[in-house]
Write a structure and sequence with these properties.
26 helices; elongated; single chain; mainly alpha; 557 residues; two-stranded antiparallel sheet
Length: 557
């Protein structure tokens, strides 16, 4: 994309911001989509790399039924990504862009079709970038990396690294000349600082900074588009020098080279995995539910810290598996959180690895972050915890109570106020109205009743009733403790199918469908299982596939 003279001049002065930004609204056709899925009649063994020449322009490849590839699109950076890019350019002290997250899809906010700059939020982009531009000028030599701030030579050296870094690709002489012309025009009317600030604003409000493109040439993404997709999918930030150089050499169309970079970038992938599991398991309610259940705010913060350290250790440091994420009987905690779990802290200070009782704790679903996020101030947590696993973590998102149903009244009619948790669960499972849903989901919540709403272990409820955590989970097995069920989920095909589908959804910003219905996702699932549920092997399978880099044009109506 070229920045365009009207675009840069208008943005530098702050005029027509809403109108101009609204003109670039996150996709080529408003709804980036997977080409028609692998439905009846599709050949799941067909290689999407062979292409399907259509009747479009010469050199293009059109999407056809049965094609697993994503159509051409552009994809706005998330607020976290945008702020990270600003910090990479100018340092940690740069002002933050206060812009909203995109609308979520299956819990994920990194969705290509929903990343819009429009009249409703354009002013927040403009105001934020104005503050960044002024701050950059105030810092002078430090942020522009100029030994002689205020000179013509400074402008040229600043633009040389700034444009390439902001656009995440080589910059044409025409683009450089246009932006230098903008600076000169501003400098003629104002001082040097104002012109530098205007230049920064023009670049950071350009679609080349706010968006990353997947338009391709002849049906295949360009080298730098591939580099950007790899980098953001794995590290949540722009390509590093090694990946950028590989794009310059034209190496990323080769699957072996993409695999090599994916494995290398795993060392930098902690942010992606942390956010993926955070959104997939709906942990964003941790702080609000911490307040509801009366948990010390310091403990809530330590639970998030534990979660992030654990995910990084298992997935990034150890190159571990989904099975380990859901079964490991250790975690990372400070003394206060370790005591909350009834565990010994090895040194009595700091964040350290803590060994836990394997019958009480095993993996993400037995950590405070998940337990509190799906806890409530009340007698039990069966429904919240069970439904989160069954609906979100197993992709059964089409379940909802009948419209107008008074759940509390229905429950009282079934069992009365003095019923035990087990009696309530059994009655719901047998009820005609509630049973279809709760018969499947409640056992997954019941096994977690050995944890209080604030994440502590309990064998007896506050009223003296013994916790009965024996459950039979359809398609998974029979269990009497949560760590055992959690470990079994990692080997359950239904859980694995949902996990692979959601990982693909998150990394690609679009729901490709489930294994069995989408050939690309099925291949990723097969490689994931063959790799003993390795997260790295799942990632490598996705980036090696031809559909990762091919972007056919839309079929003409």
């Amino acid at each position: 994309m070229n920045t365009g003279g009207l675009w840069t001049r208008a943005l530098a002065r702050g005029a027509m911001v809403g109108l101009l930004l609204c003109g670039c609204s996150g996709s080529i056709d408003d709804q980036p989509r997977r080409a028609p899925g692998d439905g009846p009649g599709a050949d799941p063994g067909a290689s999407p790399g062979s292409g399907n020449p259509g009747t479009g322009a010469p050199g293009t490849v059109e999407a056809t039924p049965g094609d697993p590839r994503i159509a051409q699109r552009i994809w706005r950076l998330t607020p976290e990504q945008l702020n990270s890019e600003v910090r990479l350019l100018f340092g940690d002290g740069a002002p933050q862009l206060d812009i909203p997250e995109s609308a979520a899809e299956a819990g994920f906010t990194n969705i290509a079709a929903n990343g819009l700059v429009d009249l409703g939020n354009a002013a927040r982009f403009s105001d934020g970038v104005r503050a960044i531009g002024s701050w950059v000028a105030d810092q002078g030599a430090t942020t522009t990396r100029c030994a002689q701030y205020g000179s013509d030579a400074c402008v040229d050296s600043f633009m040389a690294w700034f444009l390439r870094g902001a656009f995440r690709r080589p910059v044409s002489p025409e683009e450089t000349a246009e932006l230098r012309g903008l600076f000169d025009q501003l400098r003629a009317d104002y001082d040097f600082d104002y012109a530098i600030a205007g230049l920064v604003r023009a670049v950071l409000l350009s679609p080349d900074f706010l968006y990353r493109s997947e338009l391709g040439e002849g049906g295949v993404m360009t080298a730098h588009e591939i580099a950007n997709l790899l980098a953001f999918a794995i590290t949540d930030r722009s390509p590093d020098a090694e990946l950028f150089d590989a794009a310059e050499r034209g190496e990323l169309a080769d699957a072996d080279n993409r695999e090599a970079h994916a494995r290398r970038l795993m060392d930098q992938s902690d942010r992606v995995w942390q956010r993926l599991f955070w959104e997939w398991l709906s942990l964003e309610t941790l702080y609000s539910q911490g307040v509801e259940v009366g948990l010390d705010p310091i403990l809530v913060e330590q639970m998030e810290e534990e979660y992030r350290a654990f995910v990084t250790d298992v997935v990034v440091t150890q190159r571990g598996t989904l099975r380990e994420l859901l079964s490991a009987s250790y975690s990372f905690a400070r003394p206060q959180l370790a005591a909350h779990y009834g565990a010994d802290h090895p040194s009595g200070s700091g964040l350290e690895r803590v060994e836990l009782d394997p019958r009480q704790r095993g993996g993400l679903l037995t950590q405070g972050a998940w337990l509190v996020s799906h806890g409530k101030d009340g007698k039990d947590n069966v429904v919240r915890r069970g439904m989160n696993i069954f609906k979100q973590a197993m992709c059964n998102n089409n379940l909802a109570p009948p419209e107008g149903l008074d759940v509390e009244a229905e429950l009282l009619a079934l069992v009365g106020e003095d019923a035990t948790v087990r009696e309530t669960v059994d009655a719901r499972a047998a009820a005609p109205t509630c049973g279809a849903c709760h018969r499947l989901a409640d056992p997954m919540g019941m096994v977690f009743e050995t944890y209080t709403s604030d994440g502590r272990w309990q064998g007896v409820y506050p009223d003296g009733t013994v916790v009965d955590s024996n459950v039979a989970v359809d398609g998974v097995g029979d269990f009497d403790n949560a760590p055992a069920m959690s470990a079994a989920l990692a080997d359950a095909e239904s859980f694995q199918h949902c996990f692979v589908r959601r990982v693909t959804h998150y990394l690609m910003g679009i729901d490709m469908g489930s294994p069995g219905s989408a050939a690309w996702v099925q291949q990723a699932h097969d490689d994931f299982v063959a790799g003993d549920t390795s997260l790295e092997e799942l990632l490598v399978s996705l980036v090696r596939h031809p559909a990762f880099i091919e972007r056919p044009t839309e079929v003409s109506p």
